[in-house]
Fold these 2 entries.
Entry 1:
Amino acid sequence: HAKKAGGGLAVFFEDDMNRLASERAQLESDLRHAVQDGELEVHFQPLVDCRSGALLAAEALVRWHHPTRGAVSPATFIPIAERSGLIEELGSWVLDAACRNFAAWQRAGYPLARVAVNVSSRQLRSDRFVATVRTTLAKHGLRASQLEVEITESVLVDDMALATARLEELRRLGVSIAIDDFGTGYSSLAYLKTLPVDALKIDRAFIVDIATSSGALALVRAIIAMAQATGKTVVAEGVEHQAQADLLRQMGCYCIQGYFYHRPMSAAALGGLLAEQRRPAPLLGAEALDH
Ligand code: C2E
Ligand code: MG
Ligand code: MG
Ligand code: MG
């Protein structure tokens, strides 16, 4: 009898797994056409100087408007693109769109220092990646220092030697490098001594409790101190409340990204915001992102 019940459970579980697998396969085949069919769009979220409210930079975040499912989260489809190899084409498309929009903002005289693009492990490992970056920058007339590449620590775990080589090539070009979701990976902190990293982006998971937990606050203070001691810019991600922004400012973390200031928005919406915020002293606050 027990065996029978266990068997039933296994069948139920297997059904679930099959459903998930076929859902994934369906999304993967839909994603294959998404770039050509114009279903992807790049949104941008500003990084803000919490002392002045000035916009410092913008992070490109891809959006997929699926014809029948509506918006699919990048947290769902980026891993699918990564495993299926589609990430190279998708990533190049995002890089191009990010640079094209940034170049237009530059021409309009908007004082954004740079645009940040997320790069996944497989993309960074590709032999074509650095050439694609170089060509895309040239195509849009951007200086390499106007691009920041965001990688997560998992990239370093996948193949430390190759990732290091690639990051050094990017650095020689003049591209800046940020560690995204800092603190959530399983890699050794030793890389901070040797890798050409310009900025640490403290993950939202650490920021969420700083106004309510002294332990969380102490941890973030320590991360900020570590970034400062190693000469890196520090960015706080996922700031949703005034109290969090105030605490970060008191601790010397001035570059903030989060819903408290701005949600990710379309390129047109960010263009409008930049036009509105243009000031007589255009580089006001730029030292918060000084790299
Ligand atoms: P990420 O690079 O860490 O990007 C930050 C994510 O946090 C974004 O989610 C953003 O919308 C969200 N966020 C920003 N501020 C707040 C806040 O105050 N509260 C909360 N709850 N969330 C906030 P999104 O756009 O859904 O992207 C999720 C992840 O997908 C990104 O995390 C990144 O890892 C990946 N991703 C997005 N676009 C790309 C891309 O073009 N290429 C690659 N390889 N990955 C991408
Ligand atoms: Mg990111
Ligand atoms: Mg992040
Ligand atoms: Mg993240």
Note: The chain has a mean pLDDT of 91.
Entry 2:
Amino acid sequence: IHTNPIQLDHDPIRTLGTVALIEDITEIRRLEKMRSDFVTNVSHELKTPLTSISGFVETLKAGAVEDEEVTMRFLDIIEIETDRLKRLINDILTLSEIENIETNLITHEIFPGDTLKEVADVITPIANSKEIELHTEVDLNLPTIYGNRDWFKQLIINLLDNAIKYTPPGGKVRLIAYKKYNNIIIIVKDTGIGIPKKDISRLFERFYRVDKARSRKVGGTGLGLAIVKHIVLSLNGRIKVNSEEGKGTEFTVIIPVNKEI
Ligand code: ADP
């Protein structure tokens, strides 16, 4: 079949198609840039603890091992840096799993009331060991939602973990959950250090930290909230942040009660 090429070039649909293609390429470039920035960041983040570990091992081998006290101090640092590497690798794997379309299709029945209670029971001793009180006000009869149960758990763990990490001893963390209209509302509220206004819009970016040194000191990887954002999206939900420096922070997750897929 022969078509007239001149006629085709003037076909309005074809012109529209070209515009769409140009937009696609811009989007592909943007995604490529994001990916390569991520690889650069990951390499840098992995290199820091590795450099520290190999430095201390070398110093030990060069003679420091003869002093028992120094050896123990260095081994402690090596242990801390190794744990950091493990956390980083775990978080990177979790992020890539959440971004994988196939695992996104896994849906379980989630009973939010039970899961929230379960997570609170695990986190309470951790909070208490830092002299932080964890209050839970969770409606145990929340409606069932459908999604990946492990990720739902991870979402709550990350928010509570941050609340505890960024709240000084003597403070309080509250986990609240209830149903409103056709949504489940989950609130994690703390009386911690708060977040400056200028940083709020960038919080969910990978490796974004308000205070890098502080995050490092409390064992942060900078990926916790990026993971939270992706999990909330996988549940078709939304997340909001309210914070006041020196007073505390409140994260609100809104998840629609969906039908079984
Ligand atoms: P990190 O591993 O550094 O905690 P996250 O992605 O979990 O990384 O959080 C990003 C940054 O947001 C943190 O470094 C911290 O500065 C800030 N942040 C997150 N949650 C809180 C909170 N509850 N209170 C104060 N700051 C917080």
Note: The radius of gyration is 24 Å.
